[in-house]
Amino acid sequence: MTVIDIAKAFIVGVCVSVPFGPIAILTIQNTFSKGRRSGFITGLGATLVDTTWAMVSVFFLGIAEALLDSHTTLIMFCGGLVLVGVGISMALSNPFRKLDRTTQMMDRVSPKDFVKSAAMGFTNPAAVLIMFAMVSAFGIDVSAEDGYRVIFVLLAIAGGSAFYWFTFSGVFSKLRKAVNLKAILWINRISGMAVIGFGLYSFVRGILNFVNI
Question: Which of 128, 167, 157 is nearest to 13 (CA)?
Fold first, then answer.
């Protein structure tokens, strides 16, 4: 295990987090409406997903590929429903409804932010495929027998992903100061509709796969 190996794994963690999707939208929404810590916790849900898929790619690659091949339609159905549900919740939420002017912009954190993000990631079959592709592209070659090397690789990937979401939430936290409350409510609604769109797309793809179109 060399510093270069650790650096490559860290970069993989960053790269798998970059594609803009439902989790990024949820992170932006939570950062604007609740603050940086909430946005970062949301991103850490994606970090958990990325680290899990990295572990799968090392220990259970063959099994994972077989499960994906045989259950793709079911995953798309379930993933689509999860995204639609989360999107509706985002679109209808008003984080300021019960808050007064002195508390409405406080940096609030809820475990639900982490759970929502992780659920969205685990029901997205593309996430595991992206991880497999990145690990292969960067030439990270480890196996279950490599012991401590595997641990360092997984920690580096998790560190890269967490670093990305820390930076991502930080950037939008700065922008948050220039956004008024009415704009944040509209961001919630638009973000929710976008996530619903992702969910419907996944659901329709599942239907098309089921009927073999």
Answer: 157
